[in-house]
Amino acid sequence: MTVAVISGLVRPMLEGHLPAEIEPRWFSSVEKLYELIPEAEIAWFDQQDKDVMIEAAKRAAKLKWLSSIYAGLDFMPLSLLAERGVTITNGVGINAITIAEYVVMLMLSHAKGYREVVRAMDRHEWLEDSPGKIELAGSRALLLGLGGIGSLIKTRLEAFDVEVVPVRRSAVDGALGPDEWRGQLGSFDWVILAVPATPETDGMIGASELAAMKNSAVVVNIARGAVVDQDALVAALEAKSIGGALLDVTTPEPLPADHPLWSLPNAQVTMHLSGRAQDKMFIRSAERFIANCHRYVAGEPLEPIFDPVRGY
């Protein structure tokens, strides 16, 4: 039998649907996870506490396939997993729809000054004019990252008549190449970050990139906090050299209560909630896991594969 160590939280969605060749062993505590994981050939042990996941991976000496609901796994001991030849499937695409919707919501909220509308409502104050007068239609967005999330962001913004210019490895179909986008930053109203967290993308938006943007440009980050030089971003926001920042991700997370980003009027922090703004995440993940289990016992390729060397 193939031993699979799986969180008891998803047991109701998986039980009765796994292949007979797989023996599930369920855990409901960290202690039980650590007890079971050394015998696991298959594992799905996502936790809020990343340190628990790291430790479980280190103890999983027999592991051949690691399944995760997370799209970004840069926090895991990837070199160790690669050395052991572990196949990794991640959650890429699971949250794509809700994150794409979240981007549109953030942009509309900024454009219409909706945060001030809500505050006026809390004060029971009838506003005589809109605090935001920006229209998405006719604006231009630079989209860094055209994967599962970026592709959905693109189609949704295009429905609002936003001109979306993606960055791709080859400059085709209206896209900019990786060496071209920095030179054109000044022509965009929105700079949307949907790239994976890799050494290549770390700090890709820094002081020089921020200085090259329009003074009305808005940075939208739903990638990882490390993609942006946060100190440089705070300085640009304080100087009002850019129009704003809409940040679902920060460095660190949670953001300390005394961090200046909380108080800046031209910044919005949404606490890494974009992927959680849905009720189908675990259903989609369970369905994907079941399908992959059947592929595994049949000797077929699993999907989607996470490459620990590339980091996505």
Topology at a glance:
Layout: E1 2-7, H1 11-14, E2 22-27, H2 30-36, E3 42-44, H3 50-59, E4 65-67, H4 78-83, E5 87-89, H5 96-112, H6 114-122, E6 140-144, H7 148-158, E7 163-167, E8 190-193, H8 207-212, E9 218-221, H9 230-239, E10 244-247, E11 267-269, H10 281-298, E12 305-306
Parallel strand pairs: 1-2, 1-3, 3-4, 4-5, 6-7, 6-8, 8-9, 9-10, 10-11
Antiparallel strand pairs: 5-12
Helix pairs in contact: 5-7
Mean pLDDT metric: 96
Helical proportion, percent range: 25-40%
Uncertain residue segments:
none
The whole-angstrom Rg is: 22 Å
- Largest sheet features: 6 strands, mixed
- How many domains in all? 2
Sheet with the most strands: spatial strand order = 2-1-3-4-5-12
- Based on secondary structure, the structural category is alpha/beta
Tell me the total number of β-strands.
12
Terminal residue distance = 31 Å
- CATH fold node name of the largest domain: Rossmann fold
| Overall shape | elongated
What is the H/E string? EHEHEHEHEHHEHEEHEHEEHE
CATH class of the largest domain: Alpha Beta
Strand content: 15-25%
Q: Mind telling me which CATH architecture of the largest domain this is?
A: 3-Layer(aba) Sandwich
Write out the CATH superfamily name of the largest domain. NAD(P)-binding Rossmann-like Domain
